[in-house]
Amino acid sequence: MPDTTSLGFATRAIHAGQEADPATGATVVPIYATSTYTQQAPGQHKGYEYSRSGNPTRAALETCLAALEGGERGLAFASGLAATTAVIQGLLQPGDEVAAAADLYGGTFRLFDKVFKPWGLVTRYTEDASVAGFRPIITPKTKLVWVETPTNPLLQIVDIAAIAGLAHQAGAVLAVDNTFASPYLQQPIALGADLVVHSTTKYLGGHSDVIGGAVIGRRDLLQPIAFYQNAAGGVPGPFDAWLTLRGLKTLAVRMERHCANAKQLAAWLEKQPTVQRVYYPGLASHPGHELAKQQMRDYGGMISVSIKGGKDAALRLLTRTKLFSLAESLGGVESLIGHPATMTHASIPAEVRQARGIDDGLVRLSVGIEDVADLQEDLRQAMA
Ligand code: P1T
Predict the structure, then answer these.
(1) Is any atom of ligand 1 closer than 6 Å to the C-beta of 211?
(2) Pairing state of beta strands 362-366 and 97-101?
(3) Dmax over Cα atoms in the chain, in whole Å?
(4) What is the distance between the terminal CA atoms of the chain, rounded to a whole angstrom?
(5) Helix count and strand count (H, E) for the chain
(6) Full-model pTM
(7) CA 313 remoteness from chain centre
(8) Alpha helix segments (H runs only) across 270-362
(9) Which domains does the chain have, with CATH numbers?
(10) Is 81's C-beta closer than 6 angstroms to any atom of ligand 1?
(11) Which atom of ligand 1 is nearest to the CA of 213?
């Protein structure tokens, strides 16, 4: 394995873990569609025994993910939530506590609340994701601090270095769900985080054609998570690993366009009379703008918009766009529009959701890489 650490991001995305196939010389990592591997004698093999434990296509993806996040090791999972599950099951015991920033993907909240709470895990949430906000929810039992940044769906920015310092003082591990930023825009490990979690379904895969997840971090910390990956088996198949690896190759150029398009649309949306508020960290009006400038390369492709007139007005917009597809998910080349209250965040109780600002007038945009003039015109005609 040549050392890729000195290479730039776009080069690593194309080369890390992806040297020519040792068996055939194939330039592109092949889809190793095999469940098992023939051994010369029991235990004598070429590094692979069974594809739950390891598969060369998945191994290439895992190596590339680690190289992009600047971690020692990467692990790929069948979904983002399978990755989150592996972190919890690999590192925590019933009775342990998680301290989490309250604004996060509804499915992650549901996992903590409906699966791990009955198992014995206590999750405490803070609306204020600053050090001052986290302090009161960190107890001697806190083993894991969990943040997204930017958050889903309100695009809050969390100070990764500051929260890492706080977590480490408390003897806890900081995990950052880096799905909204992608490693092209933000590398949490360099800022002090211990683990990075991804839904690779989003920007990393980038084409809305595959579900996957990942955990990246230090070798010692990943060891029990890797044990769980093999023991419980929530791994991606080789075709899914291959699609994700194929997506990664263009991550840098895609993110540039996602960011440029979103920046233009956010500035335009802020001036529209039907818009109450625009949530986009690239806007000077965003409370996390200065922090985002420090810890991110650019501001990402996600925008949330609060529409005047509440639910009815929001639903009118959602059903009138022609290029923005009304759909869950984000981070693909095509633009998507969604209604967090009834879609991605429906699993959060209504009163909790509303208290957090995820009201029925909130619309979330995943800005794709189409021509931005077409996207703007689509929103204009839908809001007219
Ligand atoms: O869907 P899955 O690959 O299991 O990933 C879950 C997940 C984890 N973390 C974040 C920040 C996410 O946004 C998601 C999935 N989110 C959506 C499907 C969505 O539309 O927000």
Answers:
(1) yes
(2) unpaired
(3) 73
(4) 56
(5) 15, 12
(6) 0.98
(7) 29
(8) 289-295, 310-320, 350-355
(9) 4-248 (3.40.640.10), 252-383 (3.90.1150.10)
(10) yes
(11) 3
- pLDDT category at 245 given cuts 50, 70, 90 is very high
Of 22, 103, 333, which is closest to residue 203 (Cα–Cα)? 333
| Residue 306 Ramachandran class (φ > 0 left, ψ -120 to 50 alpha, else beta) | beta
- Copy the structure tokens of residue 177: 């769900």
Strand arrangement of the beta sheet that strand 325-326 belongs to: 275-279, 302-307, 362-366, 336-338, 325-326
Q: What angle do CA 156, 246, 219 make, to 5 degrees?
A: 65
Decide: residue 330, CB within 10 A, 0-12 exposed, 13-18 middle, 19+ buried: buried
Beta bridge partners of 125: 100
Partner residues linked to 142 by β-bridges? 97
- Asked if 48 and 54 touch (Cβ cutoff 8 Å), the reply is yes
Nearest CA to ligand 1 atom 19: 329
Closest ligand 1 atom to 180 CA = 11
DSSP 8-state symbol, 95: T
317-340 tens-digit pLDDT: 999 999 999 999 999 999 999 999
Burial of 10 from C-beta contacts in 10 A (0-12 / 13-18 / 19+)? middle
332 lines ligand 1 (CB under 6 A): no
Indicate the SS3 state at residue 143: strand
> 201 in ligand 1 pocket by Cβ < 6 Å?
yes
Q: At 245, give phi and psi (nearest 5°).
A: -65, -40
Amino acid identity of residue 184, one-letter, is Y
Contact between residue 252 and residue 64 where contact means Cβ atoms under 8 Å apart: no
Output the CA 276–ligand 1 centroid distance in Å: 26
Which amino acid would we find at residue 236?
Answer: P
Neighbours of 249 (CB within 10 A): 17
| pLDDT, average across residues 218-222 | 98
Q: Which residue(s) pair with 123 in the sheet?
A: 98
From the CA of 24, how far away is ligand 1's center (Å)?
37
